[in-house]
Design goal:
Elements (H helix, E strand, L loop, with lengths): L14 H15 L62 E9 L7 E14 L2 E5 L2 E5 L5 E12 L11 E13 L17 E5 L2 E4 L4 E12 L2 E13 L4 E15 L52 E8 L3 E5 L2 E5 L1 E9 L71 E4 L4 E5 L12 E6 L6 E5 L4 E5 L1 E5 L4 E5 L6 E5 L3 E11 L4 E11 L19 H6 L9 E4 L2 E9 L2 E19 L2 E15 L2 E16 L4 E14 L5 E16 L2 E14 L5 E15 L4 E11 L4 E5 L6 E5 L2 E5 L1 E5 L4 E4 L3 E6 L10 E6 L2 E5 L4 E15 L2 E14 L29 E7 L6 E8 L7 E9 L1 E5 L4 E5 L2 E7 L21 E7 L2 E5 L4 E14 L6 E14 L17 E15 L5 E10 L4 E5 L6 E4 L7 E3 L1 E5 L4 E6 L8
Antiparallel strand pairs: 1-2, 2-3, 2-4, 3-5, 4-5, 5-6, 6-7, 6-8, 7-9, 8-9, 9-10, 10-11, 11-16, 11-17, 12-15, 12-17, 13-14, 13-16, 14-19, 15-18, 18-21, 19-20, 20-23, 21-22, 22-24, 23-24, 24-25, 25-26, 25-27, 26-28, 27-28, 28-29, 29-30, 30-31, 31-32, 32-33, 33-34, 34-35, 35-36, 35-37, ...
Length: 1082
């Protein structure tokens, strides 16, 4: 590891955390006093060079103006002329002593000079104008001077090293940086990097201690320090300072620097090579220093790096301030790791360089090194949040802020108690990942205060740590929510642990916490649900809750990212990630989730929320009763004309569900596009539910499909199926399904552009049977609710089961149906819930079918069928009515059924006869016309339901097979009128067009024009008019005035003619009713 001179404050300090950083560097600057301890460890015995009369050494400069005594050759054995063994030290003047680096004998490590040295007896001596030099390995120099003092020299004959003593009359210690040319600095001319002064200074070489009871003042190039009572204990064996104490603290003042201090060059400048490696030139004097007598030796391998840990404690009433910013505590602890007596170059991180890093999305809390000393702290880089096409939030704009005036103010640290620093050999959790860290505590009061009005931040915590190498501030508390941080206009954070990294702006809050008011200015106000004039569209737009929380709390962890401004952390929040039973609430709204991620856009006005994402059992609700649930919910925001954040898009995933009153939207995904209405309130513009989507409204609409999309302003809905599963829209007892179902709430239309199915279920009958109508088509279906018009296109098949024994069918290439038009004020049958979550209109009266038209083709004509079976258990055919034609028109208003063009009608009656009731007045009750009847025509057929008759025109043919007959009765005519009587056992509620239901039986036939009839006995008759009583089996044939009825009997030799003939088909008997010109065969 590289070692360098102690690092002082750096630029780019970030507001209050930067204030802490500057204090640490300033306190280290006091360590200039420590340098004097090196004078207590002279490895080679120093000897006075000459005891002559020269005393021209200037105490103030240490450079001298006259001749110098020669430097003692420390490598040579002592001689008697040099004082020798057993020779006491006599009074001397102008003595100079030098010594080598104990690890590198070729390097001059230090030098002492004094003007006079006078013995006092008992091995004590008075000294005047003592001066000392210590030459550091990096080229720096420490200089010491005093007016006088007395010293104790235990070994007066050999080492003559002062073992203890006291320097008096004003002691000055100066630290100089390495000069560019490598020469020795002149204390009277050159400016020292640090200067420390005191009245007296005592030292004891035996114990390695130096001390003073006096006031100690230190002046650095960017800091000043004052205190009273100094004690330093040096461990010569371990080559380190063991103990440092200031008994009464006073003040430390640090002046911020805009640029880092000059770093020592990696190599000595070329100018330094002009002097001998054994001598140290003196600048500005022109007088060369005497060459060292230390012989040069080959360079040794670098010595092993010695790491020393220190803990310094500042006593009570600690106050750290810079301008309007301050931290107040009862105690301050500083932890530092020293390498070969120096701080590492990265001890205070890289304050001039910031790294943008998003917070970790992990829900596992990071460890707190100050809270859990048993385990090393973690410092894993946060994981970025993966972007997606649907998750893109609004781009943030971050104009740089001006440098706050506080950054130019002095940093002042005051305290009233002692400052004690000592080495620590045991494990220090605070130094596992850092070389320097600080801890502010209040052991008695329990609260540390931090206040930065210029940044809009104020906080309290039992413990505030600053990890200088990582540049991270941590506020910790043993109690949940014991940390409080108030960010002006951005809310208040309450938690158990809050850590902020000054390089990235990422903050971690471990344990349970709360944010109050953080979204107060970042979200719009909720909609006024009490506004009675709210439109139906606005009410629909509130189906998804308008969550605007102002308070957020969590149980596990929270991560925050603050915007960086010119290398400093600002108070503008960019991201927040919360995990563990997260709850956000405000203005009646609430969000509960296991994880919450909020992204903010920042500018000169502050932070505005731009994106919100919640995961794990998300449940959101608002004051008007709306709820939104899902495993993942995302909301993107934009800004309105006033610069406020308003929701722009909402996406809920995995079991997503939104409700408001009786309204419901659910699916695998709910995607809502939002906007502002004319009142400036947020409302839904489009809403899409997909993946098993389901929508249900208070007015009875239920829609299901793979995807359901609503356009709220136009009130249009589109339901889409997937694969073999169609989309379905249901209103009350009617449902429509198809691959696509389209609903227009404004036009009040519904359409299926493809094959589909319509189902209508009626209330259950007394026997429990549920009547049902089904209609299928292959091309399309449209329905206009306002007009009541429906059109089904493409191989249409409709089936109605009115009861357990009846089935009615209508088939055609197209079927159009006209229903009773909807009232003008009736709400559309789309999903438009009222503002209170209830139906927006009263339930409408049942719609009636006014007209139905089935159209076919020549190859595939339209048809209508009404079928009855014996019973629910016995499915044997009992009766059947079947009509076929190119077009079939059923008009329920006129109570007619028309088949324009050719067609056919089949009536089948297979029921068993039953005895008539005793009091029956039915003239036909004596016998029923069980049997089959087939009618065909070429021109048209019209059935009149009120008269139970049907009129057929053009080449009418009838084939009637009565029950019991072996052969049918046939009839042909130009026109025919048939009476089909409804039987008492048929359904009273039958709505078969024209009344031609499966419960009808043939009652009477009236044929006109070219009538031809043939019985089962092969007897044939022709006439102009025929009346056939199908129940009695009697046929009456008549002719016009100038024509006759003709009877052809295979058994007769000639035809029989008459004006009128009655033919009893049951008895096969012919009776002449109106004789005319009767002729018989010969």
């Amino acid at each position: 590891m590289r070692v360098s001179p102690a690092v002082n404050s750096r630029p780019g300090m970030s507001r209050t955390p930067g204030l802490i950083l500057a204090v640490v560097t300033g306190v280290v600057g006091i360590g200039a006093v420590w340098a004097f301890s090196y004078f207590l460890r002279v490895p080679t015995p120093p000897r006075p060079a000459d005891t002559g009369t020269s005393n021209n050494v200037s105490p103030g400069t240490g450079s001298g103006t006259g001749s110098r005594p020669p430097v003692v050759d420390l490598s040579a054995p002592p001689t008697r002329t040099q004082g020798g063994v057993g020779t006491r030290i006599h009074s001397s003047s102008g003595a100079t002593v030098q010594w080598a680096d104990k690890n590198d004998p070729s390097r001059l490590a230090g030098e002492m000079r004094y003007v006079t040295l006078d013995p006092l007896g008992d091995k004590r001596y008075n000294v005047t104008s003592p001066q000392g030099w210590m030459f550091l390995r990096d080229g720096g120099v420490v200089y010491l001077e005093a007016k006088g003092g007395n010293v104790f020299i235990a070994d007066e004959q050999v080492s003559r090293r002062p073992d203890s003593g006291t320097l008096t009359g004003g002691v000055t210690i100066k630290v100089f940086k390495k000069k560019p040319d490598g020469s020795r600095p002149d204390p009277a001319v050159d400016i020292a990097y640090a200067t420390t002064t005191m009245d007296t200074l005592s030292f004891d070489g035996t114990t390695g201690e130096i001390s003073t009871p006096d006031v100690v003042r230190a002046v650095l190039d960017n800091a000043t320090f004052s205190g009273r009572g100094l004690t330093i204990i040096f461990n010569e064996l371990k080559d380190r300072v063991e103990y440092f104490e200031i008994r009464e603290g006073d003040k430390l003042v640090i002046k911020p620097q805009k640029s880092p201090p000059d770093a020592a060059p990696a190599t000595t400048p070329a100018a330094a090579n002009t002097t001998s490696a054994n001598s140290i030139p003196v600048a500005a004097t022109g007088i060369a220093e005497p060459a060292s007598s230390i012989a040069p030796t080959p360079a040794l391998a670098p010595a092993p790096i010695a790491r020393t840990q220190y803990r310094a404690v500042f006593g009570s009433d600690v106050r750290l301030s810079q301008g309007t910013r301050e931290i107040k505590s009862e105690q301050l602890e500083v932890f530092a790791a020293i390498f070969n007596g120096r701080l590492s170059p990265d001890a205070f991180g890289n304050a001039g360089k910031t790294t943008s890093a998003p917070p970790t999305s992990s829900t596992q809390p990071t460890s707190d090194p100050g809270k859990n000393p048993s385990a090393p702290p973690t410092n894993a880089a946060p994981k970025p949040v993966a972007p997606s096409a649907e998750n893109n939030a609004i781009a943030t704009t971050s104009p740089a802020d001006a440098v706050p005036s506080n950054e130019q103010a002095d940093i002042i640290l005051t305290w009233s108690g002692p400052l004690v620093a000592r080495t620590v050999d045991d494990y220090i959790a605070e130094l596992v990942k850092d070389d320097v860290s600080m801890r502010f505590t209040s052991p008695i009061g329990g609260t540390v205060y931090i206040d930065d009005p210029s940044a809009g931040a104020r906080g309290t915590a039992p413990v505030i740590n600053y990890f200088a190498t990582r540049r991270e501030v941590a506020m910790n508390s043993p109690a949940p929510r014991g940390v409080s941080l108030d960010l002006k206009d951005n809310g208040t954070v309450l938690g158990q642990s809050l850590a902020l990294n000054l390089n990235t702006g990422v903050a971690h809050a471990r344990g349970p916490g709360t944010i109050t008011g953080i979204l107060a200015t970042a979200a719009t106000k909720p909609a006024d649900t009490n506004n009675a004039s709210a439109s139906s569209a606005a009410a629909t737009s509130e189906l998804v809750p308008a969550t605007q929380p102002q308070t957020i709390q969590w149980t596990d962890q929270a991560d925050f990212v603050f915007a960086m401004r010119e290398g400093r952390v600002s108070n503008q929040l960019q991201e927040a990630i919360l995990s563990g039973a997260v709850q956000a609430r405000g203005d009646g709204s609430q969000i509960d989730a296991g994880w919450l991620h909020a992204t903010f856009a920042t500018d000169a006005t502050g932070s505005r929320i731009s994106r919100l994402e919640a995961k794990d059992n998300v449940l959101a609700s608002d004051a008007s009763g709306g709820t939104l649930a899902g495993q993942n919910v995302q909301v993107a925001f934009t800004t309105d004309a006033k610069g406020n954040a308003v929701p722009d898009r909402l996406i809920a995933r995995n079991a997503a569900k939104a409700t408001r009153g009786e309204d419901l939207v659910e699916g695998g995904v709910i995607d809502a596009r939002l906007g502002l209405n004319k009142d400036g309130k947020s409302e839904i513009k489009t809403l899409t539910a997909r993946e098993s989507a389901h929508v249900q409204s208070a007015d009875g609409v239920d829609a299901r499909g793979h995807e359901i999309t609503f356009d709220v302003p136009t009130q249009r809905a589109r339901l889409t199926g997937r694969g073999n599963v169609d989309a379905t829209a249901t209103k009350d007892a009617t449902s429509i399904s198809g691959p696509i179902v389209e609903v227009d709430g404004v036009a009040r239309t519904i359409g299926v552009p493809g094959p589909g199915l319509l189902t209508h279920v009626q209330p259950a009958l007394k026997d429990g049977f549920v009547p049902k109508v089904e209609a299928r088509w292959t091309t399309s279906m449209t329905f206009d609710d306002r007009k009541g018009d429906a059109a089904l296109v493409g191989t249409v098949q409709t089936v109605w089961t009115p009861d357990a024994i009846s089935t009615d069918k209508v088939n055609g290439e197209t079927i159009t149906i006209a229903l009773t038009p909807a009232p003008a004020d009736q709400a559309p049958s789309a999903t438009s819930p009222g503002a209170d979550g209830k139906s927006a209109a009263p339930k409408a009266a049942p719609r009636e079918v006014l007209r139905a038209i089935a159209r076919g083709t020549e190859n595939a004509p339209a048809s209508m069928e009404s079928r009855r079976v014996v019973s629910a258990a016995d499915r044997t055919l009992a009766s059947l009515t079947f009509i076929q034609g190119t077009n079939i028109d059923a008009d329920n208003v006129a109570q007619t059924l028309t088949v324009p063009g050719s067609g056919k009608l089949l009536s089948v009656d297979r029921r068993q006869s039953t005895p008539p009731a005793a009091n029956s007045s039915d003239p036909f009750a004596q016998s029923r016309g069980q049997g089959d009847a087939l009618f065909t025509w070429s021109d048209s057929m019209t059935a009149f339901r009120a008269q139970d008759r049907a009129e057929m025109h053009g080449n009418v043919q009838v084939v009637h097979l009565r029950a019991g007959d072996a052969e049918p009765t046939e009839l042909r005519s130009r026109d025919l009128t048939a009476t089909l009587r409804q039987n008492a056992s048929s359904s009273e509620s039958s709505t078969s067009p024209g009344g031609l239901s499966g419960g009808a039986s043939l009652s009477q036939l009236i044929a006109t024009g070219n009538v031809w009839a043939r019985s089962s006995t092969k007897r044939e008759m022709t006439s102009d008019r025929m009346v056939y009583d199908a129940v009695q089996g009697v046929m009456v044939l008549t002719a016009d005035d100038d024509r006759d009825v003709t009877v052809f009997d295979p058994a007769a030799r000639a035809p029989l003619t008459s004006k009128a003939i009655e033919w009893d088909l049951k008895k096969d008997r012919v009776r002449i009713v109106a004789p005319g010109s009767i002729s018989t065969g010969r």
